[in-house]
Each structure stands twice: as C-alpha cells, then as structure tokens.
Amino acid sequence: MAKTIFSASKRQQDQRVQELEAELRRLKNEEVHPTLNSEIGVAENHNFQTETIDKHSKKTEETGMKDQTTSNTERSLENKKLENKKDEVEGDELNSQPLERKPEEYSELMKDESPTTNPLAAFVVRPPGAKFINQHIKEKILLVLRQHPVVNLKWMFLTIILVLAPFVLFPYFPFFDFVPGRFQFFILLGWYLLISAYVIENFLYWYYNIYIITDERIIDIDFYSLIYRSVSEAKIDKIEDVTATTAGLFAGVFNYGNITIQTAAEKREFDFNKVPQPAKVTKFLNELILEEEREKNEGRVM
Q1: I need a labelling partner for 273 at 20 to 30 A (CA). Which of 39, 72, 138, 205 fits?
Q2: Is 255 exposed, middle or buried (0-12, 13-18, 19+ CB in 10 A)?
C-alpha cells in the first residue's frame, strides 16, 4: 500500500513538472512573439510605405505625362492657329493685289492667233522657248517681226542669174579659152563661193534684223554683220504715237508696210520696215499702251 501511495505521488510530481515546463514554454513564446510581431509589423509598414511611394510616383509620372501631352497638344494647336492666321493674312494680301491679266484677255491678236513654231516666219506670235539678250526675268515675248519674205525675191532672183551665168555666157563669150582647164575649174569654184557668200549674207541680214514686242517694251535689233549689231529699245509706256504706212503694189498685194513709232525714250523714233500685217501690229501696240495705262491706274505696275 505504501508502494501504491508512492507511485501516485510520483505521477503527480511528473504531471506537475510537465505543467511547469509547459508554462515556461508558454512564457518564452510570449516573450519572443512580441518581437516577431513588431518586426513583422515594421516590415509590413515598410512594404506599405514602399507601395504607397510607388503608387504616388506612378501617379506623378502619369500626371506629368498627361500634363506634357496636354502642353504639346496645346502648343501644336497654337502653331496651327498661327499658321492659319498667316495663311489668311497672305491670302488677304494676294486678294487685295490686282491680278495680272494675260495678253489673251486684252488683245484680240493674242486671242485669235496661236503660237508660231515656224523658225522662218516673218510674223511670229508668242514663240515657244524664244529668248533674247537682256531679257527680263518675267518678261514675255508676244510678237517677233521680220521683213516680209517677199523682200528677199530681189536678191534671190539675182542669185539665180549669177548661178546660170557661166553656162549661158561662156558658150557665146569664150573669156577663158586661153586658160587651162584645171584653172577654169578653180575659177568656177571661186565664182560659186562668192555667190554662196552673197546668199548667206543676205539671208542673215533678213533673219537677224528683227523687231520684238514684249509685254514691257519694244526692241529693234539691227544686224549689220556677224561682229556688229545695234539694239534699241523703249518701254511701252514711253510710246506716244504709232503710224502704219502701206505703199506700192507689192505692199498692197502681200500686205506689208512700214510702222513708225514715236516715243519719249532716248531713241525718239522706231521704224519697223516692211513688216507683215502692219494694221494688226499697230492695233496690238495700241492695246498694249491701253493695258499699260490700266495697270498704272489699278496699281499693278511694280
């Protein structure tokens, strides 16, 4: 029985020891857990602050990008407005300036005649691609005149006679019978070379003696040789009087004549000799004079 009591007491002591150990473990856990909890709380707080800062920075960046986009949009709109205002001002200036009229609008000759492409024509209207010395940048050639081709008949007829002369005269007048045949060949060759030079000289004189009428002035080019020519000019607004004269049977039949132009320029008088259609040319010059006066009245003269 005593042994039984002792074993019961032993079990109670062991149970009590276990309870005390459990209590000690619980107290130790309570002492460690607050530290862990505080550390966990600090970590959570740090993470929260980091997330908050990141969110704030993202919002700031998004706001900055939105502000930058808004400012760029506003700037582009302002630039467009300025460009539109500039275009409107330039358009108003252009609209306020009188427009330059085309020759077809004030001249019947320019309206009825098409551009002339024949390089040998004596009455050339608006020749495409034609230019001359000292031509202004915006100056337009409206009419180019040469002497009527019929005036060339005189030297052409003389050329034919000179070409046939050796064959017609030599059989009846043996001028060179005493000259050896070889020298006769060279004499004939020299004869025809002189005739060729005569033809070329007369053709160049006709081709390069021209009268030019532009939308700004009249120009008289007198060709004397390959190394010498004379150029006279006068502005349209300096023209005071234009007179056309047709005299003679040939002039009446072939419709050519002389045009005399009185000016207030350095050269007082211009003579367009034996040009085709003198009445049309005179009318065209008068139309140019009227248009020049109209430009002055409307303020279109620069």
Answers
A1: 138
A2: middle
Q: Name the one residue in this structure whose structure tokens are 């009227």.
A: 290
Instruction: For residues 289 and 294, give the distance between their C-alpha atoms in angstroms, rounded to a whole number.
Output: 9
**Series of mean pLDDT values for 10-residue runs along the chain (302 residues):** 48 70 67 46 49 55 56 66 62 54 82 89 91 87 94 94 84 68 80 94 94 93 86 91 90 93 88 94 93 80 56
Query: Is-contact 271 234, C-beta < 8 A?
Result: no
Q: Give residue 94's pLDDT.
A: 46
Q: Which two tokens stand for residue 302?
A: 């620069």
CA distances from 65 to 24, 51, 72, 79, 110 (A): 61, 21, 10, 21, 65
Name the region of 113 (left: φ>0; alpha: ψ -120 to 50; beta: rest): beta
Coil, helix or strand at residue 144: strand
Q: How many CB atoms lie within 10 A of CB 261?
A: 24
Q: Contact at 8 Å (CB) between 106 and 169?
A: no
Phi, psi of 256 (to 5 degrees): -140, 160
Q: What letter does residue 98 receive in the DSSP assignment?
A: P
Spatial separation of the C-alpha atoms in residues 195 and 205, rounded to whole Å: 15
Angle, helices 181-208/153-169, rounded to nearest 10 degrees: 170
Beta strand pairing call for 269-276 and 239-245: unpaired
The 228-235 sheet, strands edge to edge? 123-125, 141-145, 210-214, 217-225, 228-235
Whole-angstrom Cα distance, residue 196 to residue 120?
Answer: 19
